[in-house]
Amino acid sequence: MSSIPFFCGKDCGGNACPLLATVEDGCITRVINNPAAGRYVKGCRRGFDLPLEQSAPDRILTPLIRTGPRGSGQFRPAGWDEALSLTAHKLAEVRAESGPGAVLCRGSAGVIGALHATYAVLGRFMNLFGGCTRLTGNYSIGAAQFILPYVLGHEWTVSGFDAATMQQAEMIILWGANVLETRQGAEVPQRLAEARKRGAQIVVVDPRRSATVKQAATWWLPCRPGTDAALMLAVLYVLFSESLTDRTFMADHSVGFDQLERYVLGLAGSPPTSPEWAATICGVATEEIVRFARAYAAAKPAMLFPGYSIQRVYAGEEPYRLTIALQIATGNFGRRGGSTGSINSMLPAPRVGRLPVPPISPQPSVPVTRWPDAVLEGRRGGYASDIRAVYNLGSNFLNQGGDIRKNMAAFEKLDFAVTHEVFLTPTARYCDVIFPTTTAFEKEDIGIPWAGNYLLYKPQIIPPSGQARSDYDVMWELADRLGYGPAFSEGRSAAAWIEHFIAHSEIPDPVAFRETGIYLAPDQARVGLADFAADPGRHPLSTPSGRVEIASESYQRETGFPAIPTWQPPPEDRRFPLRLISPKSPHFTHSQGSNIPALRRRAAHALSMHPQDALQRGIADGEMACVCNAQGTGRIPVSLTEDVTPGVVSLPEGMWVDLDGSGVDVGGAANMFTATDGTRPGAACIMHGVGVEVRRIVLPQSACPHDLGAIKL
Ligand SMILES: Nc1nc2c(c(=O)[nH]1)N[C@H]1C(S)=C(S)[C@@H](COP(=O)(O)OP(=O)(O)OC[C@H]3O[C@@H](n4cnc5c(=O)[nH]c(N)nc54)[C@H](O)[C@@H]3O)O[C@H]1N2
Ligand SMILES: Nc1nc2c(c(=O)[nH]1)N[C@H]1C(S)=C(S)[C@@H](COP(=O)(O)OP(=O)(O)OC[C@H]3O[C@@H](n4cnc5c(=O)[nH]c(N)nc54)[C@H](O)[C@@H]3O)O[C@H]1N2
Ligand SMILES: [Mo]
User: Cys-Cys crosslink for 340: which of 159, 571, 599, 712, Cβ 3.0 to 4.6 Å?
Assistant: First the structure.
């Protein structure tokens, strides 16, 4: 028996959590926290449960080649040589006939590490291939990433804070952040618990009584999905009208507050964004909004800690610039125990080598949200390329992107699709070739955290199962067959790259790093943009004004949208009056783990609904119901709970889609109901606040309607 430093490296809100894996007789029997990391940086149940995934009987252990129709799940095992030759041949054929842009590259963050980062391994392979059509933006922070450069310049990439600084906060406002389950850094849950114990005010804004509300909040503001911008504008109204703003700080650090103030006070032609106005939109009572605004203004320092959920909504760009406006208006921006209001994890990890992605001339691209539209419509539909093939690495994007039925149709149109996978996911079922990939226990790597000033190391803990090979090794073999193996590998094995990365790092003692599995950099309490906050004259931002652009003329010029953040009401469809949210499950990383029965048993998958909404619809607790909108239909058990606010239904994302013969999903997949339109102007995904209707199933099950337009309302 031995305990070995380990991390899972999943795109899970932690990415690199310091763990120890116990190996007995060649099997992983236990995963626990690594004490070498100290009291704060810890793993979570998803890491501790990984042995279940490792030993799952449905792991893919040989290369597979499709034999039945796409999606049928019919494959035959194949030798490595045959599967690699077929893939190399198909890729070369598509490139020769239609150019490299005919290959769509979906390199997601299935795994993150200095070497085995799926986006980097595939990016390197495709750039040396001659390019591809690439996906821009991402499902995580698409709208934030679009707006933040206009507000903060390129310094948005260093606008976060280390979790240790939560200890200086008198108030922590978790705005759409369920950090006890989504983490946003491996240190955050422990620091939040400590802040709570110390007596800090913990405000959570969430339409759902989340685990964070239940276990950490001192104040819950249940705001309707997608209405945070209205609530934020109402808070600003109180701050302006009661003279609670820090005028000097605002003037020194920003431009455009005058315009925003006129808008908020109703002097610019639209109604004032008063608490009364906001209450009807966001559902938080007028007096509660006033009380919160006053408490926020009085707390020094106050840390606004946004989740990503608030920008995965209609007009998701606006709440993310309003969080910044709020932190400036209250004088908390860039101060210890405060925050910039921007994404918490935007500070660099310690210096270490990483697999380089060689530069290439500009390639055709498409916003990630729109990938199925680009496949289906191609150049005729105004997209940059006609896509014939897909290379997927580290994603279950048929299931995880908006509008699953459209995604299936897009896959149907392809000439060729290949993925590397651990399991036969819905996406893998639509591919032609599947290469069996290694798990986190089966490869050596250096861990780069989601947030935090540390690095982790893990050796290869057990040998690959079956015929599995690491993504790096597979891509190297393929590159060889396509004639650029030496350029891809630079003659380095996986182990040689890791040696090289450590040699090119700031890690002072590589031997201790390999032994303990952790390197903690000296400064564990960094405050993003503290220089600018302390002296904006000496440390200007790279925005046109050198200051935070509350009003951005460049944004207005380039996008046609207002220079200041405004309330943009989401479209309403009377047929679909309930607002669906699809938050993360504490047990799964996106769609990973939902195929493991022991994990499924931890929490019954159901649509959470307020009893009041259920009563109106005659739905009883635990009953199967039909959920639908224009995108699709699902049959899902309903769980009645006052943990969701009336008018809101919640379905954890990540369940694998499973269509019955009539095209109704019985797997519980949230993206049956989401669309690919995206936000405007950022074209980022919209996955919270989606209109749906829920009905008791009175028809025979097979006759569950596809579109509620078709049944009488
Ligand atoms: N357990 C777990 N943790 C994860 C992941 C995972 O798969 N599993 N994935 C990681 C990844 S890749 C990402 S990008 C992050 C994403 O992190 P987030 O996007 O922040 O996570 P969500 O669970 O979507 O939403 C967080 C909370 O916001 C609430 N919410 C939903 N809509 C709204 C809204 O309109 N307004 C407000 N105020 N609240 C709203 C939800 O009820 C939920 O409690 O999480 C990371 N952490
Ligand atoms: N409705 C709704 N949909 C959402 C969200 C939401 O909030 N609501 N959240 C969105 C967000 S924030 C994100 S980031 C996306 C995530 O969506 P995806 O990027 O699709 O994430 P996963 O479902 O985790 O898929 C990762 C896949 O990689 C595989 N994998 C694991 N290890 C390896 C490896 O070493 N190599 C290879 N090649 N593969 C491996 C896993 O088996 C899994 O199938 O989902 C988005 N989708
Ligand atoms: Mo994400």
Answer: 159
